[in-house]
Amino acid sequence: MQVFHEVEEYRKTWMQWRKAGEVIGFIPTMGCLHDGHMSLVKAAKQKCTKIVVSVFVNPSQFSPDEDYDAYPRTIDNDVELLKQNGVDAVFVPSVNTMYPSGITMDVNKQEGAFVEVLGVSHQMEGQFRPHFFRGVCTVVCKLFNIVRPDKTFFGQKDIQQTVVLRRMVRDLFLPIEFNVVPIYRQEDGLAMSSRNRYLSDEQRKTACVFSQALNKAKELFDKGVRDRTSIIKIATDTIEANKNVRLEYLSLAHPTTLDELETVGEDGAILSGAMYVGTTRLIDNITLGFSF
């Protein structure tokens, strides 16, 4: 497995792969890798002959009140895990490489090129992290231009991110096949997340109420219930019955427009939300009436 830090280093290998007719799959990450990320690698290996993973903690998706410096960085463990899972190349760029004009977390003082996808970035997660998807789209677009993959793979757990980025790929005519991989859950239903490491054993048990609430809502949907009030209520009641968590929001949205729905139609819906267990913020979702 090759580890690249510079764009031109990687591009030489890319040229060799392209001449050999390899199909390149790409998985962007912020590191702190776990089995959920490895499920993306597994999915990529089914469709591609070469797999590239990037590890880059992206400053532009953090707000000034979020602690960018405290985000866990486990690059040695990440590289070893990727090697064990048969990844062909890891791209680990510096902040200066990714942001040649420099970067500050104050959006009003930023310089250089940025990418925004309007219409699907302001709601749901965007309510609470208003510049988050601007940062995500910018760094992913840069990485797509550097890595030049044929196919890319993202996890369903960050479901709004997949909707936003698919729109970016479509609207900017990027020649990349976009794949969404189902959420990787632990046996108790908890969605795998880098943030799970912040949970105590007791909090971890408590956190499972999120997936339980989503599944209860899906059971209701599968019985024919389509109205927003009933679907949101059963999920909310399940979560709020546990006094050790704090629900931040629940959304019932259209799968492509992310418009909030009063009734789930033929296109189905995304039921998603965020909650706090102690000081740890967790997100989760379930699809109703459609799949990726």
TrEMBL record:
Keywords: ATP-binding, Ligase, Nucleotide-binding, Pantothenate biosynthesis
Pathway note: Cofactor biosynthesis; (R)-pantothenate biosynthesis; (R)-pantothenate from (R)-pantoate and beta-alanine: step 1/1
Swiss-Prot/TrEMBL catalytic activity: (R)-pantoate + beta-alanine + ATP = (R)-pantothenate + AMP + diphosphate + H(+)
GO molecular function: ATP binding; pantoate-beta-alanine ligase activity
Entries under InterPro entries matching the protein: Cyt_trans-like, Pantoate_ligase, Pantoate_ligase_C, Rossmann-like_a/b/a_fold
Enzyme Commission numbers on file: 6.3.2.1
GO BP: any one term: pantothenate biosynthetic process
Top-tier EC class: ligase
Family the UniProt entry places it in: Belongs to the pantothenate synthetase family.
HAMAP family reported in the protein's UniProt record: PanC
Name of the protein described by the UniProt record: Pantoate--beta-alanine ligase
Lineage of source species: Eukaryota, Fungi, Fungi incertae sedis, Chytridiomycota, Chytridiomycota incertae sedis
